[in-house]
Specification:
GO terms for molecular function: 1-deoxy-D-xylulose-5-phosphate reductoisomerase activity; isomerase activity; manganese ion binding; NADPH binding. The chain is an alpha/beta fold. The chain contains 15 helices and eleven strands. The protein binds NADP nicotinamide-adenine-dinucleotide phosphate. The site of NADP nicotinamide-adenine-dinucleotide phosphate has 27 residues, from α1 and α9.
């Protein structure tokens, strides 16, 4: 029996993780759950999964929740409490599924405690990739990607890295793959969140529409697979059936395919190196043909180019990119800026901050704070 902590349990990845847990009650048990403010959904999850500990972001929602759930469930609040459940002796696996930079510290805690870290929160690697990978190595943690592309590459690389030439991340192109650049100005948040293949939270849905999600994934892949930007490629694949590929020097290419459903990725992370039923239907290729592939349009999807540039710059540039993106996306979702202003705000922020190396968690946090302040000033310019 493996005890699991799910950070960000009330979100889309949280839902999928809990549905896999429910399928395998003989193998997995919920130890702890966390959410930001959604105590009503957390109440339902507590009734169904009976965790030992629950963490909410603030005291008020924690108090609200404790009034309505079983008194045996301990309710904590705040970021220190997230670190506690991520590193707790009684947890074996940690699903890191908080959205954004808010998920970084608890991912790092799980790595430092030597847990199996099932990493959906790609921002942890974008902000603090060197520190994260060092913590994984030093403490014998197991880092298993929970992103369809990285899981695909992780699965393909089970046959080894000898002769590896490049990895190729597939990108669906989101809802605007075929929309002309000029028509993107008037896009609404709901249009941007209407992903054709994947059901996800609103922030990552906007990131998919701008292709910043793919940019963050390129950085994530750089750290996970220890490859430079030159060996990481992106290809458009609107059907989201081929989840990614690895290319070898002998002309061989290995790909992983499946229906676009995160339960496959999550169940693999939970059962690795074995495989268990995830509840996802088997792929029927005859129902998905033709499978199409195109090179990405980096002029239209400027965010992808900005992410490649930030990776090549290194140091704090990736954290700056992430912070500015979070600010810009939040303002777009609140109808304060246009869709096409997202990359402009990120570029302005990147240009305003000196490129320095990142050596500690404190420097990550300081840079994140500075980048958010500058990005907010850039937002005022457009709002
Ligand atoms: N969804 C996917 O298919 C997918 C695929 C690959 C990777 N990912 C990555 O997985 C992560 C989660 O994505 P998602 O789509 O599941 O997001 P989501 O549906 O928006 O859920 C986010 C979760 O994080 C919690 N949360 C939000 N802000 C927080 C804060 N400041 N402090 C603590 N907890 C906070 C939310 O709690 P409340 O409910 O209380 O707000 C919720 O439980 C992201 O990093 C995303 O890039 C997602």
């Amino acid at each position: 029996m493996k005890n699991i902590t799910i950070l960000g349990a009330t979100g889309s990845i949280g839902d999928s993780t809990l549905s896999v847990v429910a399928l395998h009650a003989d193998k997995f048990s919920v130890f702890a759950l966390s959410a930001n403010t959604n105590w009503q959904k957390m109440q339902t999850l507590c009734e169904k999964f009976q965790p030992k500990i629950v963490v909410m972001s603030d005291q008020a929602t924690a108090q609200q929740l404790s009034k309505v759930i079983d008194k045996n469930i301990q309710v904590l609040h705040g970021s220190e409490a997230l670190n506690t459940i991520a590193a707790h002796d009684d947890t074996d696996f940690v699903m890191a599924a908080i959205v954004g930079a808010a998920g970084m510290a608890s991912s790092l805690s799980a790595a430092k405690a030597g847990k199996r870290l099932m990493l959906a929160n790609k921002e942890s690697l974008v902000l603090a990739g060197d520190l994260m990978m060092q913590a994984v190595r030093d403490n014998g943690a197991e880092l298993i990607p929970v992103d369809s592309e990285h899981s695909a590459i992780f699965q393909c690389l089970q046959s080894g890295k000898s002769g590896l030439n490049k990895i190729q991340l597939t990108a669906s192109g989101g809802p605007f793959l075929h929309t002309p650049l000029n028509d993107l100005k008037s896009i609404t948040p709901d249009e941007a969140c209407a992903h054709p293949n994947w059901s996800m939270g609103r922030k990552i849905s906007v990131d998919s529409a701008t292709m910043m999600n793919k940019g963050l994934e390129v950085i994530e892949a750089h750290y996970l697979f220890n490859l430079p930007a030159e060996n990481i490629d992106v290809i458009m694949h609107p059907q989201s059936i081929v989840h990614s590929s690895v290319y070898y020097n002998d002309g061989s290419t290995l790909s992983q395919l499946g229906n676009p459903d995160m339960r496959t990725v999550i169940s693999y992370a939970m059962s690795y190196p074995d495989r268990v039923d995830s509840g996802v239907a088997a792929l029927d290729l005859t129902q998905n043909s033709p499978l199409e592939f195109y090179p990405p349009d980096l002029e239209k999807f400027k965010c992808l180019q900005l992410a490649f540039d930030a990776l090549k710059q290194g140091g704090n540039a990736m954290g700056t990119l992430n912070a500015a993106n979070e600010i810009a996306v939040a303002h777009f979702l609140n109808n304060k800026i246009d869709f096409l202003e997202i990359p402009n705000i990120i570029e302005k922020t990147l240009n305003a901050i000196e490129n320095i190396s990142i050596t500690s968690l404190e420097s990550v946090i300081a840079n994140d704070k500075l980048a958010r302040k500058i990005a907010l000033e850039a937002v005022q310019h457009y709002a």
